């Protein structure tokens, strides 16, 4: 087993971050205890899936990563940093968001919580397509069915992980095959079409192509894909492409979260977008805090006064 270490910022709480793996996707497993979790997960490196086990040291100053793949070990570092958003200055972002009296209580309640980002934009877009107009539980079920059908497997220690498929794997599926997994006709068409576009080079989701684009140009580029509207494109920019200032104001969950924090009155899309202007240039982090605030309150967190 090959071991790597990476320093983590004081603002980062590994346990609280990985406990909020709300999607329950099969290539991430949270093991250990709530206070000392160990994550087993998979990453694609050079077209091969690699398993890694991740925990923090006793001083909570370093991430300890263990893998059985010697060749891919060093290439894991930037992927893990991307996944756990370790290169963002959370102290600065949260300090800015705390200036807003609506956000301040939940920012404090959720301190240490980092975004978990998709390291692959194809995976992110598929997840967002699957999640359109269905609840999180059913979206998770559908995603895991897709993974089990055409995904890969990799072992790390005693754990076997299902690995999210590559675009080329999904492109070989028929719409009828996805229909047997309870995907809607239209959703199955969108996912197969996206996979074929990526596999055939009709759309380039690489960081080299997307990173230089301005936010609105990026959203326009992604929206040329059938089944990708503004919400899906914004969520991909936020959850995969590390854009710090994205706010999907039409998201029902965000509108509900703002309503709960503002006396129970849900704002309109326009009102939410206007409110979010005050959170720039960290609107992505405000959105994340708001999404997580719903679960915090539903699972016994105190309602902010």
UniProtKB/TrEMBL annotation:
Pfam families (alphabetical): HhH-GPD (PF00730)
Give the EC number(s) under which this enzyme is classified. 3.2.2.21
Q: What is the lineage of its organism?
A: Bacteria, Bacillati, Bacillota, Bacilli, Bacillales
Q: Which PANTHER family match?
A: DNA-3-METHYLADENINE GLYCOSYLASE
**DNA damage: is it a keyword of this entry?**
yes
User: Which organism is this protein's natural source?
Assistant: Alicyclobacillus acidoterrestris (strain ATCC 49025 / DSM 3922 / CIP 106132 / NCIMB 13137 / GD3B)
Q: What is this protein called?
A: DNA-3-methyladenine glycosylase II
What's in the keyword line of the UniProt record? DNA damage, DNA repair
Instruction: Extract the InterPro entries matched here.
Output: Alkylbase_DNA_Glycosylase/TA (IPR051912), DNA_glycosylase (IPR011257), HhH-GPD_domain (IPR003265)
